[in-house]
Design brief:
Helix content: 10-25%
Order of helices and strands: EEEEEEEEEEEEHEEEHH
Length: about 250
């Protein structure tokens, strides 16, 4: 494999395309772990991500798994012919969920896999994957928005970040979830409303692009709070107006 050379192309256009015609650099990118090969398109004028078209073709498969907070749920996974993995391309450009195994290096993340279509080994990863799917479905069905950037951007989620890490965040291109700290009363931060809250930061970034400071920063957070509750209501049929209450904040101090 050689160092990829960019090819200048026009991405999108035509009745069957959901992308507006965009001048883009096209790269053939291969990754060993997690296994991936795809054409990656980068906006030639702004450097922004446009999309990825996979070259390793697998099959979206109806799957299920036990989640940390919502019991047994159904979601879409990927079948490689020998393994099922928490990855799919049926929701926009796709939803992928990886484990950092309590590390902090994203290039060392591993795929979450199962020998069957029933995922039982990692309820935290199942919760994040399902939460990302339901967040995508909410914005698509209620607002006709195709992922956070309205261009089918892949929603990448990384669970088990670091050790005793009490936070979840959107970093401009992906989701990261800590496992909390049980000694201080925090469980893993992967509830439905937290998933919706953090991914909504991506929606805000690619729409209003509010500066994260002062009043505009407060609006940024409040939009995420409200949409997080909207996602919870969409997925469960009800919501509690309490952000992340399932992680039992502060229970150790009660």
């Amino acid at each position: 494999y050689k160092f990829p050379q960019g090819e200048l192309v026009i991405m999108g256009g035509g009745d069957a395309e959901r992308y507006v015609p965009t001048l883009a650099w096209k790269f053939d990118i291969y990754a060993v772990e997690p296994l991936s090969r795809a054409y990656i398109y980068i906006n030639a004028r702004t450097g922004a991500w446009v999309t990825a078209l996979p070259l390793i073709h697998t099959t979206n498969a109806p799957s299920s798994g036990t989640t940390l907070y919502n019991g047994l749920v159904n979601f879409t996974a990927d079948y490689t012919g020998s393994l099922y993995r928490l990855s799919q391309t049926s929701s926009g450009g796709g939803i992928q969920t990886f484990s950092l195994n309590n590390g902090t290096t994203y290039t060392s993340a591993t795929e979450v896999t199962s020998l069957t279509s029933s995922f039982e080994a990692d309820p935290t990863a199942n919760q994040a994957h399902w939460g990302a799917e339901r967040t995508y479905d909410y914005f698509k069905s209620k607002h006709n928005r195709d992922s956070y950037n309205n261009l089918g951007g892949v929603i990448n989620s990384y669970v088990h970040y670091s050790t005793n890490y009490v936070n979840a965040f959107w970093d401009g291109s992906r989701m990261t979830y800590g496992d909390g700290n049980l000694s201080t009363g925090y469980k893993p931060l992967v509830t439905l409303d937290i998933c919706g809250h953090e991914i909504t930061h991506g929606v805000t970034q690619f729409s209003a692009n509010l500066t994260y400071s002062s009043e505009s920063g407060a609006l940024n957070e409040s939009f995420s709070d409200i949409f997080g509750e909207a996602v919870e209501n969409f997925a469960k049929g009800s919501n509690d107006w309490l952000m992340g209450c399932e992680i039992e904040i502060g229970r150790a101090h009660v």
